[in-house]
Amino acid sequence: MSLTLAVSGMSCTGCESNVESAVSELPGCEGVDADHEAGTVAVEGEVDQGAVEAAIEDSGYEVAD
């Protein structure tokens, strides 16, 4: 399964690392790629979208609708 979310608030590679670290700890996550320039986070694996959104928001960023 592949999931791509629009995320606001990431402004640098450090932000990308924060998001990637948080999401990668979720059960079923096989890979995550955050891109601050595009404002996206792509997740591979069998993960719950709500859990991904919560991990991103808990890291201090906002998932766009």
Quickly list its features.
65 residues; 2 helices; 4 strands; globular; alpha+beta
List the helices and strands and how they pair.
Blueprint: E1 2-8, H1 13-24, E2 29-35, E3 40-45, H2 49-58, E4 62-63
Antiparallel strand pairs: 1-3, 1-4, 2-3
Describe this entry's structure for a reader.
There is one protein chain. This protein is an alpha+beta fold and 65 residues long. Helix content is 34%, strand content 34%. It is built from 2 helices and 4 strands; from the N terminus they run βαββαβ. It has a 4-stranded antiparallel sheet with strand order 2-3-1-4. β2 (29-35) and β3 (40-45) form a beta hairpin. The relative contact order is 0.32. The mean pLDDT is 97.
Tell how many strands the DSSP assignment holds.
Answer: 4
What fraction of residues sit in β-strands? 25-35%
What is the averaged pLDDT score?
97
Structural class: alpha+beta
The SSE string, one letter per element, is: EHEEHE
Distance between the termini: 20 Å
Strand order of the largest sheet: 2-3-1-4
Largest sheet, described in full? 4 strands, antiparallel
In the predicted model, the low-confidence regions spanning at least 5 consecutive residues are: none
